[in-house]
Structures are given as C-alpha cells and as structure tokens.
Amino acid sequence: MKKGKKLYEGKAKIIYATSDKNLVIQYFKDDATAFNNLKKSTIEGKGVLNNRISEHILSNLTQIGIKNHLVKRLNMREQIIKLVEIIPIEFIVRNVATGSITKRLGIEDGTVLNQPLLEYCLKDDNLGDPLIAEEHILAFDWATKSELEKVKKMILRINDFMIGMFRGVGIKLIDFKLEFGRLKENGKNEVILADEISPDTCRLWDSITDKKLDKDRFRKNLGDLIPAYTEVAKRLGILHEQLNLSAVNVTKLRSVKKRK
Ligand code: 5GP
Fold first, then answer.
1. Residue 103: partners with Cβ closer than 8 Å, 6 or more residues away
2. Domain of 150, in residue numbers
3. Do residues 15 and 108 share a domain?
4. Has residue 26 been placed in a domain?
5. For residue 242, what pLDDT is reported?
6. Is the pLDDT score of 247 beyond 60?
C-alpha cells in the first residue's frame, strides 16, 4: 500500500493518505506534550512502544467484539487504520481519582471510585479541552443520543476488559481517554473506537508499589519514561526483553519480531 500525502499532524501522531480512500496510515511520533502544549519534548522510542502497545490492546478489543479503526500494524511506527470522522469529544474514564479531577473537585488523590466515572471533554486545544456535560454534546450536535448510548456501552466493556487485562499483569488501570469516530462502510454509518490506547492515554500504576508506568512520568518530571513503557509492553507479553530503544536497538526489536 502506497503512503500518500500528510492529511493531519497532531501532537503525537501523523495521518497519511493511502491509495485506498477508506484507509489511512497512522504514524506514531516520539513527541511528548503536556499541559495543553506548554510542556514539550521528544522522547526517543516512545512512538515505537505506543504503536506496539496500542496495536495489542485494540487487537484484543476486536477479539471481544469492540469495533475499532485498526486494520494492521505496518512497521515499527505505523499502522493502517480505517478513515473515520472523529467525534470531537474526549471520553475520560476514571476508576481511581487522580489528575485533574482531584484538583477540580478537591478529591483526595488515589480515592477508589465505587463505580467507573465517565467524563466528557470537548476536543479543542485552543480552549484547553474543557469539561462538558452530555447536554452540551446533544445541544451542539457533537454526537447524537443514539451514538452516545452506543459509545457508553462500548466504554463500559472496554473498561471492564482493560481492568482485567492489566490486573492480570500486576497493573492498576487508574483512568484513560478514548476517542470514537464515524465510519461509513457498505452504506452503513457506525461509531467505532479510534485513536490509540497506550501509556500516553492511560494512567497505569504498578499494583503493588503504585509506581507510575505512564505519561505522568513526563508530566511530573519523574524520568525513566521509556523503561516504564517498556515494562508495560513486557508485562503484556509484547516485548520479551528489556530494550533500550535507541537507533541501534530498533534493529534488535525488528529481529525479536522476526523470530516470533
Ligand atoms: P486528566 O483529566 O486527569 O488530566 O486525565 C485523565 C486521563 O485521560 C489520563 O489517563 C490522561 O492520560 C488522559 N487524557 C486526558 N486528556 C488527554 C489528552 O489530551 N491527551 C492524552 N494523551 N491523554 C489525555
């Protein structure tokens, strides 16, 4: 499949056209941003790890019937995905209170919620992705009632599945962000899971030590982001050895893939 022109560049990914108008290539960059772009850096190897981890999670979600945009991973940094019209909402799922909710509502950090909490943010960097209510989504036609009901059902299943998957490898799924898109296929319009699910979009804490294994290592200047993401990948069974993802070791990762 031929890679065409750049269609969109976001903070962590680039989307390229392909020779098939229904498919695009999603390229994972090493760029890291936080606090609405105020903090920026490049962390070598992050894109490679997120590509692999997101592929693993989305493939598993396909297995349990959650339709999503992933077609297949192409290489170290790229996936072929179905082209969708992204719903301009960030769906935030929380199992444990931390991050913005603790500041916004004065909740003690680490409070375990007695049921998953779903929050909606408008996907708009200029406005700082503001928190919105379901009523805003309907009032401004960002999604229909029926789309929202379908998305909510999917989100609960995704959360249940991911809690179990991570618990099995000694990781607590604290919270995460999901995005959904509209897919037109065979004359049908449906809403499917899109974007990525990775340590960039989830908070993941070690079950025993509460060590942060996610992007908070960057946000909070904790360092060792690559070892933490590598640890997540290893525990999920994606990588079988500790990898230092420098240019040299990218070759090593290729050979690991080939041996499988
Ligand atoms: P918070 O609202 O506490 O900052 O984030 C809640 C969860 O959603 C965290 O897992 C965080 O990583 C994720 N999240 C929220 N907004 C964004 C975003 O704009 N980009 C990314 N990568 N993750 C986000």
1. none
2. 86-166+180-195
3. no
4. yes
5. 53
6. no
CATH of the domain at 130: 3.30.470.20
Domain shared by 14 and 76, yes or no: yes
Query: Do 105 and 44 reside in the same domain of the chain?
Result: no
Ligand 1 center to 71 CA (angstroms): 25
Tell me, what CATH number does 75's domain have? Answer: 3.30.200.20
80 and 91 belong to one structural domain: no
Q: Which residues line ligand 1 (CB under 6 A)?
A: 90, 92, 99-101, 129, 175-177, 200-203, 215
- The alpha carbon of 179 and the centre of ligand 1 are apart by a number of angstroms equal to 11
* Residue 1, pLDDT score: 80
Would you say residue 192 has pLDDT above 90?
A: yes
Q: How far is the CA of 202 from the centre of ligand 1 (A)?
A: 7
Expressed in angstroms and rounded, the spacing between residue 207 Cα and the centre of ligand 1 is 20
